[in-house]
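Researcher: Please translate sequence to structure tokens.
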Amino acid sequence: MNPIPVMEPAEAYALWAREYPAHAHNPVMCAEQRALLALLPTDLRGKHVLDAGCGSGRYLIHALQRGATRATGVDLSPQMLERAAIELSVCGFGTRHELKQGRLEALPVADGAADLTLCGLVIGHLPELEPALAELRRVTRPGGVVLCSDVHPIGHALGWQRDFKIDGTRYAVCHTQHLYSHWHAACSMLGLVIEAVSEPMLDPADIPAGAHFDPVALNVPVALVLQLRCPL
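Model: Translation complete:
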């Protein structure tokens, strides 16, 4: 069997964008999203929400549906931002959102601009954790909240890949394993307080009939979701 080509994020998402929906579209994403949305306030009126690595806009949509006064999405991929613009337009959110191209390690956002910052399934694409967390802290107001998620590090140990299929060919996006101990050390260094940690499991109901998957995945957590508080 030929190995799956592993691509850098910019190249991978340029290819994946045209088929990337603005909702959780696989069992791991469904588990991750349930855990993250459980931490996202149900009433975001008066709040500016930043989605760092917004992709096709799924968490921007959730934030705006929960009443966010303003929502800003930043993503490395112009193709994914184009997809997000279409999805947000279809949802009819008008001018309450803004999309910007930028890197997670250098967000084009002013210091303390966001009341709440989201970063869903993105940090694992970066080789180092601390620079990304430093940026998420910088753009979030003192006392504000950062919600982060990533594929659980156990998946990397089991050989799982962030893969996708286009025109019958399977590809994978490069991914770095960030252990909980790495998160703890980086947060301690930056003064971020870990307020909540969730390790969601797969729901068998989310697995399509006849799907080929590692059965071990039913017995281990598939995502790591953290709620972080910025220092005052």
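Researcher: Any highlights?
Model: The chain has one domain: 6-204+216-229.
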